[in-house]
Every structure is written in structure tokens, then in C-alpha cells.
Amino acid sequence: MSNKVAVVSIQYPPTIGGLQAHVKGIVDIIQDLGHDVHVITSKPNPSMKIEGQVDTNVTQLPVIKWFKDSPIINPFKIYRALKSVNPDVVHVIHTFPLSLEVACLYAYANNKKLVCTYINDVILEFPYSLVFKIYESIFWRICKYMISAISVSSHEYGRNAVGLKDWSKKIYEVPPPVFDTDFNLTLEKKYDAKKRLGLDGYDKIVLFVGGLRKRLIFKRPDLLIKAWSEYMLKSNINSVLLIIGDGLLKDNYKNISSKLGLGSNQIIFKGYIPRLELIDCYLAGDVIVLPSQDNNESFGITPVEAMLYGNAVIASDIPGIRGAIRRKNAYVSLVPPLNWKKIVDELKYWLSKDVNEYAVENNLYVKEHFNKEKIKHEIRRMYNE
User: Fold this and answer.
1) Averaged pLDDT, groups of 10, the chain, 385 residues long
2) Which terminus of the chain faces fewer neighbouring Cβ atoms within 10 Å, N or C?
3) Is 207 in contact with 306 (CB distance < 8 Å)?
4) What is the pLDDT of residue 35?
5) Domain residues of the chain, as ranges?
6) What pLDDT is stored for residue 270 in this prediction?
7) Which residues does 162 contact at the CB level (< 8 Å), separation at least 6?
8) What is the pLDDT of residue 190?
9) Strand partners, 267
């Protein structure tokens, strides 16, 4: 049965980011299932990168205020946009200030089904943490009574998410769709990418992929830079760290690397790069590191993408990442959050290995666990049940 679906999301392409790619992937799959989808989102933050054009099925609403890259939209405009679409199903990407409450009100008043993709726990510093705790204890609790179904990126994260502790209904597992799970990896493709990027002079390439904005400070690239500095002091391997991503904190991270004595031949800040070049960087890479510190990281799509293109992974042992890369044996290392010395140990281990030992196996891991047919099946089940 075909439905008209309104997806309400904090952000959406053409802005660039893991959240945007996650929601876009879900929207594409809902459309593949035969539903008519319309997206309601915010106008882009001027500080964010844009790639491509706005899709014809997207309504961008003006923002009253930006709070840590999160848009506050006039709730009456969200309600009017929903009224204009007149969907059978409202699918909210939570957490998005005010949108969930408006969606609940609209669904209740108009007898519509309401489903929710729970992106992540929101962990803020004081006094914002107090405000959010009050919000969760009142508004989020009320909204949960009105929601028909909730999906999360992994069951591991769903079991550990603070915001879902009192959710007694079924949780559906809908991970972010990965770039291209049909990709057939060969070592020749990895070597060719190194040459195209002019990185074939290095024996080993380490990657960090993520936004360098204030809202994403929990990804902790500063810990990786510190670990990399320590590793380079004791290593005789000709290697380089690529920091891929942009944002207001990029200069801050550059200053950290400079103070630690890292030269331009040891660490490269590539900034924002388009998708095709990002795939080349993944292919050129040997190891990706994601040292995120807490439940703000609900999945970590970049390690999974990097595994598809033949990288080993060093990442924090937190529920979101664990749920993505520990579903069965894979060539990964999980380290305690905030422990940069353990990252140094794992860098020594993985960079001493030959890429032949793990690249193809990690590619097959992603194909098995994150192919789009599996994700499509789970979304279909969530909508049907």
C-alpha cells in the first residue's frame, strides 16, 4: 500500500554531513518502496558546505535562530507545511527542537500515523544540559505515547540510549545506508587511488573523516592529533594523517598539530572534499580513526564507509560505534573513550600490518550487514506493522 509520507528533519541535502546522508538514504529507500515522500527541513546554515541542488520534494523553512548548528523554526510554519503536504505518515528525525512536538500535535489532531528515527542522545554542557533534561522528562515523554514506531541505527545503540530507556514497544534497526555496497574492492583500486591523490609516496595513510564544527566537538580529532604526534615520534614508517572535514574549529586543530611539531608532510588538513574525492581518500587509506567520546555518536557512518573501501578501524568503544562495527568478526579495534595512549598502541599494531590481511574482508563485512535490501526490508516492516 502506497502512503504519502512527510519526513521532518533538522537538516537535509544539499548541505553536507553524516546526518544529511543518513536521512537522504532513508528517504530514497522509502521512495523505492513506492511511497510518495516530501521532506520538511530548515534552510541551510550559511556556514555549512553545499553540494548539488535542492530536491523538488523538499520544503526549506526559514530559521529563527541557530543553536550549536541546530535550527529553531517557527512551529506554526512547521504545522502549516505539514498541513499543506497532508501526509498519511509523519516521519520525524529526532532530536530536532520543536519539530517533534509539532508533528505529534499535527498527527493527533488529524489522525495520522507518527514514526520516529531516533538519531542520538543529546549531551550538552551545563546549563543547557539542565534545560534538555527538563525537556526530556516532560515533552519527549509525552511525545513517546503518540509515536507508533521508533527506529535506531543499531540495536546496540537502542539498548543504551538514555532517551529510549522507558520505550517499551519494538525498536526497528535502520542503519544509515552506505555509499555503494555493490562496490567490489581490489587492492589495485586502492593503489590507483593513492596515485590519483598524489599520496603514493607514503607507505601508510591514516584517515579522520568528520565535521570540524562546534556541535561535533565530541568526535575529538584533537585526541587523534595528540596520539598521532606521539606515534610519529617513535615510528620509522613513512606515513601521513589526513584530516577530512571543515568547520570553524579547523584552525584550532591546525594550531594543536603545529604546537605538537607535526609538519605538513605528517598531517594534511584537506578540508571539505566532494564525494568522489572522499571515496578516493577511503580507497587510499589503510586505517581510519574515530575517537568520539560519548552517545552523541549514535553510529559512526564513516568507519563503515571506510571499511567498504578496505580500511581497518580504530574507534571508541561506545554503543553507537560498537553497534556498527562489532556485529561479527571484523578487522577493527575498539579503545576506551578519551584514552589517546591506547590509540597510539593500536596505530602501531595496524600500521605494521599489510593491507592484504584485512582490506577485502572488511569490504565483505559491510556488504553483508549494510546492503540496502536489508535496510529496505526493515523500513517496510516498520511501516507495515
Assistant:
1) 92 89 93 96 87 94 85 93 97 84 94 94 82 85 92 93 91 89 94 97 97 91 98 93 95 97 96 94 98 90 95 96 84 96 97 94 93 92 90
2) N
3) yes
4) 96
5) 4-177+371-384, 187-369
6) 96
7) 121, 136, 295
8) 97
9) 241
Topology of domain 187-369, CATH:
Rossmann fold (3.40.50)
Please, how many CA atoms are within 13 Å of residue 131, restricted to the half-sphere of its CB? 6
Question: Which residue shows C-alpha cell 570540524?
Answer: 212
At 71 the pLDDT is 87
List own/partner pairs for 142-147 with CB under 8 A and 24 or more apart: 142/104, 143/100, 143/101, 143/104, 146/104, 146/107, 146/108, 146/114, 147/104, 147/114, 147/115, 147/116
| Cα Dmax for the chain | 66
Domain spanning 4-177+371-384, CATH architecture: 3-Layer(aba) Sandwich (3.40)
The answer to whether the 4-177+371-384 and 187-369 domains have the same CATH topology is: yes
Distance CA 245, CA 12 (A): 18
